[in-house]
Amino acid sequence: MLWRYRRTTVNHPLDRRQWLRYVWASGAAAGLARLGTPDSPAAEVGEPGGFQSSIIAKSKVDANRVNARLVGDRVIQPETELPVLHRTDVLVVGGGSAGVVAAIAARRAGAEVTLVERYGHFGGLWTGGLVLLILGHIVKGGKQVCQGIGEEIMQRLEKLDGAIVNRRPGVNPTVDAEAAKYILVEMVQEAKLKVFLHCWGVDAIMDGQSIRGAVFESKAGRQAILAKVVVDATGDGDLLAAAGAEYEHRSHNVGLVSRIGNLDRVDKQLAGQSPKPRGLGGITPVPGVNWVNMLGPEVDGLDIEVLTRMELNHRRFIWQNVQKVRKTPGYEKVYLVETAPQLGVRITRVLAGVKTITRADLDACTKFADVVGVGGASHAEHGEWQIPYGALLPVKIDNLLAAGRCVSAEMRMADLVRLIPNCFVTGHAAGVAAAVAALDGCRPRDVDISKVQRILRDQQAYLG
Amino acid sequence: MNATVGQRQPPSRPAASTAKRWRNLSRAGALVAAGALLSPWLAATEWPQLVPAASAWVALCTTVALRRVESVFLVAGLLAATLALPWRRWFCRWGCPVGLCADAASRIGRGLGCRSRSMPPLGQWLAIATLGGSVVGYPLLLPADPLAMLAGFFGLLAWPVSTGAIYAALALPLVCLLSVLVPGLWCGRICPLGAMQDILWQLGRLLRRLPAAAIAVAGRGSAGGQSTVPPGLIPAESIATAHSPAATLPSTLTDGGQADAGQTTGAADGWPLARRTALGTVIGLFCASLARQAARAESVRIRPPSARPETDFLGLCIRCGNCARACPTKIITPDSSPPSLAALLAPVVSFSAGYCREDCRACTEVCPTGAIAPLPGGDKLAAPLGIARVDMSLCLLGDDRECFVCRNCCPFQAIRLVFCEETYQLTPQIDRQRCPGCGACQLACPVSPKKAIVVYPLG
Lengths: 464, 459
Known about the structure:
Chain A is of the alpha+beta class. Chain A is built from twelve helices and 24 strands.
């Protein structure tokens, strides 16, 4: 029953302490506190079977399963038919900053949209990875280039209490991850998107060179969703790789972000007497809580052994470093609030697109006829750079668009492409283009680009 | 400017005023031509260097200092020097734009009632001492060349104007002011280019009077050649030319010769120039060696790419400002706050507004003296400006903040980020083999006001 209270809280801007107080208070009157959860089917499931839970199916054996088989010492996955869970116009795989914006944009452009996310929340590395500092939405001179849905998210955060700090022109703001998760749910629900959480896109459904949907792994087993256009917003480019699109496999620094608390209780007099300890991070909207970035070693973010090692080592380092901080006079009360649920993988697969975002184009301020967005600088160190539609398009595979950090960009530009506002921008572009392609019944590469640009502008996007 | 070479000065007196008009016209033409060559809008890539290179003094000194003709444009100056052997001060009369300005200023001065004054021939000492300094590769006072001053003045045309450019541009107005206060002083007594021409002319006269058999010997060593010339000729000639028709011109120069000759007695009589040349060369050698030693401080400034080693560079640079004007990213400026007097107004590179573009070698193409050596292949790595260094106490990575700016903007891929397993610290490391010190990283570094990655001079 507890999870139902949790769901209701989604609609209220509560911080954690308030929420806990709320749970305790309402827990005392659990039977009474039946707050409305209109889309919840849980009440109808099964029959009363005990003190806390109910039986959904008694003595169940999944018959007709086609398992992987051991043939000699090789493991064989036999051919099998998958249940089709859903059919849609636009399928967005990945509910990170690019995916959510892509799905909302496509929906607003008039398409039926399905959004699939591997974790239980939206925002990807932004929220789950605790990348709370929004680098990349301004350029030299302080002009903000990230507009459209990305800016709408910021404006909504601004309206919440304690959701965003440093929100002023020419400065990179910092957000609260829980506030961002909350706002993204609100926007996804407002847009009436079909959403599947806890689903990991594992395969592309191919018809020759065209992608027709995707296969998902979840607690419910493998299922398929069919779509007219698929947007790969997985970050790692899982779908474009599965579809057989050409990509570049890169290594990059993999870190783990954490948050520390009680910085408002640091004894400033004592602290001033010794050198400032390392790893105090930067402020967040929560008073006394800082977010602490980690750069980490440059590794292959697709290698699970590497990822495992990173998780284990990074978490140990973070703990030990916080202990060091606590041993510094004045900082005794500082504590580790949390390590990010999601490992900070920066770049893995990058699409080989019809066009590629290059540093030379940035330096030359190249204008593209098929511009679908304008990217910002990480520290306002250079001017704006245009993102051509071709950078989202695979060279050969049809009906597939890339969004987020896996769009086609040369190595030195990938560090800009992967920034959250720039993911908003590529997501926005991919969403609108996917909707136009699905509604016009054409391949994304044949889409009327002026129509895409018009809709993007109607949705307040900045195209230079 | 060399187009005027063919027009000989009419020797007859009655034609003087007409000749004067033609000379002024010719010099005005030279001024316009120099302005066009030095203007940032009209000049073709390599041509601005012609302006200082056409100076006989600059050409002779740099050729002696480098032991070779560094630039094809110096041929113009060497040609001018050769023409000065038969035609006395031909360049002053027909080609010198600064002379035109100084003459005009002198006329104003005379109009205001200012009087000429008797002065020792400073210019000859300047010219000879600097030529002597060139022997040790340190031409002491080359920036006093009028054409270099003219080029410095046109530095004001380049935008944005720096403090250094204003200082460099002040030389020409100062010359004009001096000419107003003491008419004829600059051209007659101070200008080393004019003095050089006088020396050359007197040398030419010696050569002309030598028997044909002696010419070959005299051509190599001027001192040796002079000793064979009959005495008494120079003063007589000097007196004759002292009141030559070109009244506005530095005919006063030879008065010095006369005065010297009058004072000297005995064995040395009639040989002030030979003595002066010998003494000046020795003094120049001595001073240049001293100055060179004094200037041999550790390099504390970033010089343009392909610049010679600091001491040689400071000696050879005539502060004409051609490199600053040629730089497309405007990172070269005359140094207005130098670490030593020897480095005053020498071109210095700063990366506050731009960086040294990997595809550019404009400054190496316009240096008239070879202070910035030519860079034919354009390989910046072969001619580094400096080397980038990171201050980890300032670097954002030192504080684990998200920044890959320098690594990503480096045109030479010289920056690697190295992770330390023990400290969990990511540190930018610069590959010395690949870093030409172009400053792209320093320009882009988001840390301010003091940048975390800074290009330091080599050495």
